[in-house]
Amino acid sequence: MKRWLLTVIAFSLVASGCSRYKGISQPSETDSKTEESRQSTEESVQNTEVEAGQLPMEVSAEPGKKPVKVKGIYISGYMAGSEGLQAILDKIQGTEINTVVIDVKNDDGRITFAMDDAPTVNEIGATEKYIKDIDSLMAQLKARGLYTIARVVAFRDPYLAEKKPDWGLKNKDGSLHRDNKGLAWVNPYRTEVWDYLVEVGAEAANAGFDEIQFDYIRFATDSSMKQVAFLEADTRGRSKTDIITEFIQYAYEKLSSHNVFVSADVFGTIIGSRVDAEAVGQIYHEMACHLDYICPMIYPSHYGDGNFGIDHPDTEPYRTIRAALKLSKQDLDSAREEGRPQAIVRPWLQDFTASYLQHHIPYGAKEIRAQIQAVYDAGYDEWILWSASNRYTWEGLLTDEAAKEEAESLARVRETEETSSAAYSGTKEPQSEATPRQSETREPQSAEQTEGKEEKAKKSLEESTAEAETRPETKADNKKKPRTKPDVVIVTTGGSRN
C-alpha cells in the first residue's frame, strides 16, 4: 500500500476512531477450540476480474497479487512436512478446495521451517524444522494451483516468553506469568514482540506464501490473568483493545510491502459483545479497518445453549452459522464510514465432532455442507474448514465443476437481490463485497440476507447429502468429559493442545 494512503488512514483513525461494542455476555475462562486435534486454480489466480458479485480488482500491493475467493482447509506444520501431506493434496485435487492454511509459527511458538534472514528466530533457536524443504513444498502447492496462507500464532508464545522473559507477561511479584495450563504468554504491549512477529511474517512472504494470517492475536482470558501486572511504562494509558488494534496497523503496514495480504483470526463471540471484546482485546469492526481479511471462528460447538435462540447450537449448524454472520454484518454495517476500508469476512467452519459436549451431533458431509450454505445465504463467499487432526470430510465438498455451477447460480441470486435492494433504497449502484482493503477503490461490503431460505436450504441438504458416518474421536475428545458450555465461550483456532 502506498505510504500516502497509509498516512491518510492513520490520520483518519486519530481524528475519528471506530465505535465500540455494547456488551452482552461474560466470557468463559477457558479456550475450548482445542478439543479437536487443528487450489486456488490457476484460472482463479490469473483472473483480472473478481468473480460474479464483486468489483474489478485494483490491488495496490505490488503488481501480480490478486485476491482469491478462498475455500480452504488448515494443515498443521507437522502434517505439511510429513508423508501424509500427499494424501491430503490428492484428496484436494478436483474438489472446490483452492487454499491451504499452514502453520509457520505454531501454538508452541516454534517456527516450522528454516528462516535464514530471521535474526531473532535464529538467536533463540525457535525453529523446529517440521518442513525440511520449504522451497520444494511451495513449488508443489503452486503447481497444484493452491492459494497459500501462513498461520502465525501471535501472543500465545511459550517458547519466546521462556527465551526472552522480559518480553513475557509478568506477575505482580515479577515472575513470569503462566496460564492455567502452565504456558507463558508474551506481552502484546512490547514492540519487540511486534517486530518478532513481523520478522516471521516477512520470512513467510519471502518463502512464497500469498497471505499472512495471525492467530491468538489477543490476551489470555483465564482467571490467572488477575495476577498479571501491566506497567504504565508499557501501557501508557492504552487499553487491551487499543494495543491489539495498534499492532494490527503496524503489522499491516510492514507486511503489505512484501506483496502479501494480511488477515487475522478472531473470536466469534466478540461480535456484538463488548465484554468479550475487552477481555481479549479484539474489537471486531476496528480490526476490520486494518486488515485485508477478518476470519471469525464461528464453530457451532463453541456457542453455549440458548445462543441465537437455539437450544443447542452444535446440533443446528446452518442456523448457528447464519445467525453469527448476520450479527457480523450488523456489526460491520453499524461501524462503516464512507471512505474507510473494511476487511472481507472469511469465517472458520467446523469439521470435527464435538463429542465433549452433552448435546452434540456427529459432523459429516451434511453438517459441513449446511455450514457452507449458511455462509452463502448470509451473503458471504469465502470459508475455511478447521480440523486440528487434519482429517477432513471430503464427501462434504463439491467437485470443482459442481462448485463452478454453484457459483454461477449464486451469482444470479446475488444479482437479483442487489438489484432489488438498489431499487428499494434508490441507490444507483448495488453494493457488493469487493477486494481486500489493499484496493484503493474499496466499495462497502454487502451481505444481503435472504430471509425465509433456511427451511428450503435444509430440505435441499437432506435430499442431496447422505448422513455421514460418525468419525473417530481424537485424544483431545477423550480427555474432555461431557459438559454444558456457558452462554458464550471464548475459543480459538488452537492446535494440538488442551
Structure notes:
- The protein has 17 helices and 9 strands.
- By secondary structure, it is an alpha/beta fold.
- This is DUF4015 domain-containing protein.
- Residues 419-438 have a biased composition (Polar residues).
Percent of residues in helical segments? 25-40%
Under CATH, the topology is which? TIM Barrel
Number of strands: 9
Query: What's the CATH architecture?
Result: Alpha-Beta Barrel
Find the structural class using helix and strand composition: alpha/beta
User: Domains counted in the coordinates: how many?
Assistant: 1
Looking at CATH, the homologous superfamily is Glycosidases
Taking all Cα atoms into account, the compactness measure Rg is: 21 Å
H/E order of the elements?
Answer: HHEHHEHHEHHEHHEHHEHEEHEHHH
Keywords:
TIM Barrel; 9% strand; globular; disordered N terminus
What is the secondary structure topology, with strand pairs?
Blueprint: H1 3-16, H2 42-46, E1 71-75, H3 77-80, H4 84-92, E2 99-105, H5 119-124, H6 134-143, E3 147-153, H7 158-163, H8 191-207, E4 211-215, H9 232-235, H10 240-256, E5 261-267, H11 274-280, H12 284-288, E6 293-297, H13 317-335, E7 344-345, E8 348-350, H14 365-377, E9 383-386, H15 400-425, H16 454-464, H17 475-479
Parallel strand pairs: 1-2, 1-9, 2-3, 3-4, 4-5, 5-6, 6-7, 8-9
Helix pairs in contact: 8-10, 13-14, 14-16
